[in-house]
């Protein structure tokens, strides 16, 4: 009987087409997951950075306005021949001008004319919160805004509303939309801002030289504002 030598069958080398397709599919899913994770991480980092910058703006700009408005001077202006002298503090719901003490790092220091308003000329995405600065030349000299300097405090300002606290006819504290031709400064100023679509916390400044009895009598021509 003839014996035949038995040899082990040769193993096939390489991968089949199905195996290659499956491996590429798994690799693609893995890369897609990594890309999505990196994109999400980048977006989260950008949001956190924007939030940090916004909080810095609130702290810095809010602090500057609180300091300067709280130190509004109650000096009377004598630049117009009026029977009753009025305070340099003049404001409405959208802008306010006052005589205050600007910190030395922001200007020359000492008594300075200041004006806060939103400038929206040529700005497609909101306006700019501007602080105008003019030298104080005496009680008989009107502020020279044209010759003064201006500082950009904020960009992309969508809305600003200012209110002033005084007294109503009964002598009770009340809020008003303007403070015009008054013999002294209000006791408190509140500024509401919406910046880049985000409402800010109210900026509230309590004036050190609050109004006296003369201002109480003058505020009788206005009605108190209602809270909404």
Features:
228 residues; 2 helices; 11 strands; alpha+beta; disordered C terminus; two-stranded antiparallel sheet; nine-stranded antiparallel sheet
Structural features, described:
The protein has 228 residues and is α+β, with helices and mostly antiparallel strands. It has one domain. The chain is built from 2 helices and 11 strands, in the order H-E-E-E-E-E-E-E-E-E-E-E-H. Strands 3, 4, 5, 6, 7, 8, 9, 10 and 11 form a 9-stranded antiparallel beta sheet that branches. A two-stranded antiparallel sheet has the order 1-2. The termini are far apart.
Topology:
Layout: H1 17-70, E1 76-77, E2 86-87, E3 90-91, E4 95-101, E5 111-119, E6 127-135, E7 149-167, E8 173-176, E9 188-195, E10 198-199, E11 203-206, H2 213-218
> What Rg is obtained from the alpha carbons, in whole angstroms?
33 Å
Number of strand elements: 11
Give the CA-based shape: elongated
Give the low-confidence spans. 211-228
Main sheet characteristics: 9 strands, antiparallel
Number of helices: 2
Q: Sketch the topology as an H/E string, one letter per element.
A: HEEEEEEEEEEEH
Indicate how many domains the architecture comprises: 1
Helix coverage percent of residues? 25-40%
Give the distance, in angstroms, between the N- and C-terminal Cα atoms: 112 Å
Structural class: alpha+beta
Mean pLDDT, nearest integer? 80
Strand proportion: 25-35%
């Amino acid at each position: 009987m003839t014996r035949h030598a038995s040899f082990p069958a040769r193993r096939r080398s390489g991968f089949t087409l199905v195996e290659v397709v499956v491996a590429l599919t798994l690799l693609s899913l893995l890369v897609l997951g990594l890309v999505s994770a990196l994109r999400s991480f980048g977006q989260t980092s950008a949001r956190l950075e924007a939030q940090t910058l916004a909080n810095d703006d609130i702290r810095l700009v809010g602090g500057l306005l609180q300091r300067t408005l709280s130190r509004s001077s109650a000096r009377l202006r004598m630049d117009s021949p009026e029977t009753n002298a009025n305070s340099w503090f003049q404001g409405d719901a959208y802008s306010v001008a006052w005589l205050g003490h600007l910190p030395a790092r922001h200007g020359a220091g000492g008594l300075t004319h200041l004006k806060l308003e939103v400038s929206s000329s040529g700005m497609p995405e909101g306006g700019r919160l501007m602080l105008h600065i003019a030298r104080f030349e005496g009680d008989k000299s009107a502020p020279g805004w044209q010759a003064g300097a201006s500082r950009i405090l904020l960009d992309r300002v969508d809305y600003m509303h200012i209110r002033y606290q005084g007294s109503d006819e009964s002598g009770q504290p009340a809020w008003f939309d303007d403070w015009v031709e008054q013999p002294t400064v209000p006791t408190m100023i509140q500024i509401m801002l919406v910046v880049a679509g985000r409402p800010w916390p109210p900026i509230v400044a309590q004036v050190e030289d609050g109004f006296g009895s003369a201002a109480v009598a003058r505020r009788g021509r206005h009605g108190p504002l209602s809270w909404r």
